[in-house]
Specification:
alpha+beta, Ketoacyl_synth_N, transferase, 3-oxoacyl-(Acyl-carrier-protein) synthase, Beta-ketoacyl_synthase, Thiolase-like
């Protein structure tokens, strides 16, 4: 049998760039889905989506 050790957790999602931030915003009912800027979607029919925030991983 092999053993593994988990030394930490990470999460990067449209809600935030850390486990604590993502979890807190999820429990508060926030959504990471929003209208995307026209320069991002161009002429695509879909205009909403979730993008990962450009913040440090310790937000």
């Amino acid at each position: 049998m092999r053993r593994i050790v988990i030394t930490g957790m990470g999460a990067v999602s449209p809600l935030g760039a850390s486990v604590a931030t993502s979890w807190s915003r999820l429990l508060s009912g926030h959504s990471g889905i929003r209208r995307l800027p026209d320069e991002m979607v161009g002429d695509l029919p879909a205009k909403v989506g979730g993008t990962v925030p450009s913040v440090p991983f310790w937000d």
